[in-house]
């Protein structure tokens, strides 16, 4: 067998290996999002109840109930997050939020309401904000402040 045939076989073996190999997925219990699932499930149930009662969410932006984007799904896949359920845009954002630091504007919102941040992830801070915005008086206070800018 000639050198070119050997090289061809090696190339085919390498291609076959990469094509058929299984991705090394972390066990679910070791994934960082797992620790947040009780919080997320409670959050999602409460938001679904708001949508059912009012036709839209009250404590999160209305886009929360929209269909998730391909970019969000790609990001979750890149982070080895796989769920066998259809996710909303907000649910995807929440899952991504378990893996990211809080955003400055969210921390500013907490400061506006005089609340100290509890937690190190974006989702923990956003859940604090959701709790604040459940109160209609807080929603009105923010709306007046926002409109005055």
Helices and strands, with pairings:
Layout: H1 3-20, H2 37-54, H3 70-78, H4 89-97, H5 104-112, H6 122-134, H7 136-147
* Class by SSE composition: mainly alpha
- What is the number of helical segments per DSSP (H or I, 4+ residues)? 7
Contiguous uncertain segments of 5+ residues: 21-27
Helix content percent band? 55-70%
Number of domains: 1
The N- to C-terminal Cα distance equals 78 Å
N to C succession of SSEs: HHHHHHH
Main beta-sheet annotation: none
Summed over residues and divided by their number, the pLDDT gives a mean of 84
How many DSSP E strands?
0
Strand proportion: under 5%
Global morphology: elongated
Query: Radius of gyration from the CA trace?
Result: 22 Å
Multimerization status: single chain
Provide an overview of this structure:
The termini are far apart. The chain has one domain (25-147). It is an all-alpha fold and 149 residues long. The protein has helices spanning 3-20, 37-54, 70-78, 89-97, 104-112, 122-134, 136-147. It is elongated. The chain contains 7 helices and no strands.
């Amino acid at each position: 067998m000639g050198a070119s045939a050997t090289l061809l076989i090696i190339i085919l073996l390498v291609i076959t290996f990469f094509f058929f190999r299984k991705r090394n997925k972390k066990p679910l219990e070791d994934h960082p999002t797992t620790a947040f699932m009780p919080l997320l499930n409670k959050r999602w149930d409460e938001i679904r109840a708001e949508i059912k009662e009012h036709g839209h969410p009250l404590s999160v932006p209305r886009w929360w109930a929209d269909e998730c984007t391909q970019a969000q799904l790609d990001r979750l896949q890149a982070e080895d997050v796989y769920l066998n359920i259809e996710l909303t845009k907000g649910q995807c954002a929440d899952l991504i939020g378990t893996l990211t630091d809080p955003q400055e504007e969210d921390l500013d919102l907490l400061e506006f309401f005089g609340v100290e941040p509890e937690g190190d992830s974006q989702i923990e801070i956003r859940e604090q904000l959701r709790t604040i915005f459940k109160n209609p008086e807080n929603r009105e206070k923010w709306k007046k402040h926002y409109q005055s800018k």
